[in-house]
Specification:
With 697 residues, this protein is an alpha+beta fold. It is 27% helix and 13% strand.
């Protein structure tokens, strides 16, 4: 089967496989902050109301002491807290490191217009010109340096010892090869008894983690290698992670390499194939005549060299993969072990898997899960019975093993360009299932789910940050559609049934940047019944909420709108709810534009104080000194003003205590009357009576 044979990168796992170039300067690393400035010269475009630089709030997880110890050397755990504590949180549909771009599926200056859906096509059905154009773009991406990202080649132990981190450039294609290997690699761990023996009373926290690791390393303790942790395979994150992975890869190819807004990655429909029908020199390269494990010299892919294939050699060298060439791409399709797979999957297998399981994933939420759609597609469960089967590989795994080469190991598989075509088709099967499963097309289980695979965990190692939850959105929500689903999508809109992707409408990103809690409301985008796919629509604002029973009430809000009352943290609209919203508004479908509504006065005051506190925290010592002096001068001026006693008409103010300059006054006091200060310091005596003072300083 497609077993976890992962590459280990460094002595102590540290590097971001996707390090934003703009966040690798010394100031960003020192501040542990990835908040680049927008064109308005404010961090994250805050002055333009595009986003804010805020604390990274990773989902909490109750871990035992031993489980915590196992993750001490894993910088992927609670991504991305190993290096950054703060990053840009973009408002609404704004996206990007500095909130300068739009989320997938949106466009326009304010990112409030839905983009026309980009169509992913069947690779073998494309004309030869388009095929060669796609191959040329992939080939070029092996040589074009990534504009947005660099890789860190210094290991964590050396950084802890005081060595400055070293960054290297990497090509666009190899960046994504690295990402895939990084997310699935083995991990170094301390032996179980180490911390308990050396630090029996140590309380392990995020804050003291680095210091504790440094002390342990100075003890020259023994380390083990474990393959128990994979943040993109063998668990619920498998399909949503790869969905976003392809989306980001496609975006980099489109924007950096192809410079073509219509560019999309195609898919390979491998059903019922007896051999690899994309393995020829026109497409992905045929077999070399002299060595069937190599690519034919008639294909530009024959000149490709792979990266990140040395496994434990990186550990022994105390470093990690540098992106350096490590040998030719290997592929020998069909020369597989017949005891592991029966060949490429069939149409019947695919059809059975789509209809078999109504649950996205099931307990144990790993390779042992039965009747789990995720485990069936990934290939660890029998496609006839739905029962986990460790002896044979199916669907996704079977295709990897069929290639019998570089693509057959997780760590190196993305080196082979067939990987992109293969996973695009797997993503289309995921899309089919989501569109047919309605409310089951989500996954909110946390108990028993491994770290990194829960819906609210950040995907490793993406920047800008994105949670697994976002990967449960259907393709039309993310701005693309597969060619064999175009008619179905158009029919959904034309019939008024709404788009099936409304089942995964995400509201969790509409948060108060100061508290990371949902604050005010949501904007829904209503699709009129006459609108076709990719049309532009008018937005209507809603504020609102649902209770734990998922019931909600609505009231009219004017033209085409209504309100949902309460708070809405991390909620997902079901297909039925989406259709209800559409019906009440006489629209064919409801899309969500996650734009915060206008804050209340209290929220504005609270945000002002929070921003002030952040500004003070980021001040230098000299700035703090001047700030304190300024505050003292302001307080002195206010004190002096309050102690200024003067007569005004029938009212006289008296300085009641020269030592503290406490002032007391009362309506009805006459000139010359004496005022005595009580011991309680809360009242004044006028004409022998105790009366409340209006002001008492």
């Amino acid at each position: 089967m497609y077993l976890p044979v992962f590459t280990v990168y460094l002595f102590i796992s540290v590097a971001y496989a996707q390090f934003p170039r703009r966040c690798t300067d010394s100031e960003s690393l020192r501040a542990r902050e990835c908040c680049p400035t927008f064109t308005d010269d404010s961090k994250c475009g805050e002055s333009s109301n595009r986003g804010i630089c805020s604390a990274i709030n990773t989902a909490s997880l109750d871990l035992t002491r031993n489980e915590t110890i196992q993750l001490l050397l894993d910088d992927r755990a609670f991504w991305p807290r190993a290096f950054y504590d703060r990053a840009c949180r973009c408002y609404g549909n704004f996206d990007g490191l500095d909130c300068s771009s739009c989320k997938a599926g949106y466009q326009g200056d304010n990112c409030d217009v839905r983009s026309a859906l980009r169509i992913r096509r069947n690779f073998t059905s494309m004309d030869e010109t388009d095929i060669q154009k796609f191959v040329a773009i992939l080939d070029k991406s092996k040589r074009v340096t990534s504009e947005n990202y660099v890789i860190l080649v210094t290991s964590y132990d050396r950084i802890l010892a005081g060595e400055a981190p070293e960054f290297l450039n990497i090509s666009v294609y190899n960046l994504f090869v690295w990402m895939h290997a990084y997310v699935s690699r083995d991990n170094l761990v301390f032996q179980d008894d180490v911390i308990n023996r050396l630090f029996p009373d140590a309380d392990i926290t995020q804050e003291n983690r680095a210091e504790l690791v440094r002390e342990l390393l100075n003890e020259n303790v023994n380390l083990d290698v474990t393959a128990d942790v994979d943040y993109a395979h063998e668990g619920p994150a498998f399909l949503p992670w790869h969905r976003y992975y392809l989306l980001k890869w496609e975006q980099e190819l489109r924007d950096v390499v192809a410079n073509d807004v219509t560019f999309t990655i195609p898919y390979w429909d491998w059903r019922d194939n007896q051999d690899c029908d994309v393995c020829n020199d026109v497409m992905m390269g045929g077999n070399d005549a002299d060595d069937v494990t190599l690519i034919s010299q008639g294909s530009p892919i024959s000149k490709w060299e792979i990266i990140c294939s040395k496994g434990n050699d990186y550990i022994e060298a105390g470093t990690q993969c540098t992106g350096a060439p490590e040998g030719p791409l290997l592929r020998s399709p069909g020369n597989y072990d017949p005891s592991k797979i029966a060949g490429l999957p069939t149409s019947q297998e695919v059809d059975d898997v789509i209809v078999m399981s109504t649950a996205y994933d099931t307990d144990d939420y790993d390779v042992a899960a039965n009747q789990s759609f995720r485990n069936l597609v990934e290939g660890f469960a029998n496609t006839t019975t739905g029962v986990a089967d460790p002896s044979t590989s199916y669907l996704h795994n079977a295709v990897h093993l069929f290639m019998n080469g570089t693509m057959s190991e997780v760590a190196t598989s993305a080196n082979d360009p067939i990987f992109v075509l293969h996973h695009a088709y797997v993503d289309s099967l995921y899309e089919l299932w989501l569109r047919r499963r309605g409310i089951q097309g989500r996954f909110d289980v946390t108990e028993g789910v491994q770290l990194g695979h829960r819906a609210d965990d950040f995907m490793v190692p993406f920047f800008p940050l994105v949670r697994n939850r976002a990967g449960f959105a259907t393709s039309t929500r993310l701005g693309y559609v597969y060619d064999y689903m175009v008619d179905e999508v158009n029919n959904d809109v034309a019939s008024g049934d709404g788009l099936a992707d409304d089942v995964t409408t995400q509201l969790g990103d509409v948060t108060d940047p100061a508290t990371d809690e949902f604050s005010a409301g949501i904007n829904f985008l209503l699709r009129p019944p006459s609108a076709g796919v990719g049309s532009k629509f008018a937005a209507t604002r809603f504020a609102g909420s649902r209770n734990s029973q998922r019931n909600f009430r609505s009231r009219p809000l004017g033209e085409g709108g209504f309100t949902l009352e309460g708070n809405l943290p991390n909620v997902v609209l079901t297909a039925g709810e989406s259709q209800m919203l559409a019906a009440e508004n006489k629209a064919a479908a409801v899309d969500v534009i996650t734009v915060p509504t206008t804050a209340t006065v209290w929220e504005k005051v609270k945000t002002w104080f929070v921003n002030l506190a952040r500004a003070i925290r980021n001040m230098t010592l000299r700035q703090v000194t001047w700030f304190v002096i300024l505050c003292l001068l302001i307080m002195a001026a206010m004190w002096a003003f309050a102690c200024l006693c003067r007569s005004r008409r029938s009212r006289k103010r008296h300085c009641c205590s020269s030592m503290t300059c406490r002032c007391c006054y009362d309506y009805g006091m006459q000139d010359g009357e004496e005022v005595a200060l009580l011991e309680t310091k809360s009242d004044v005596i006028v004409k022998g009576k105790v009366m409340k003072a209006k002001t008492y300083l």
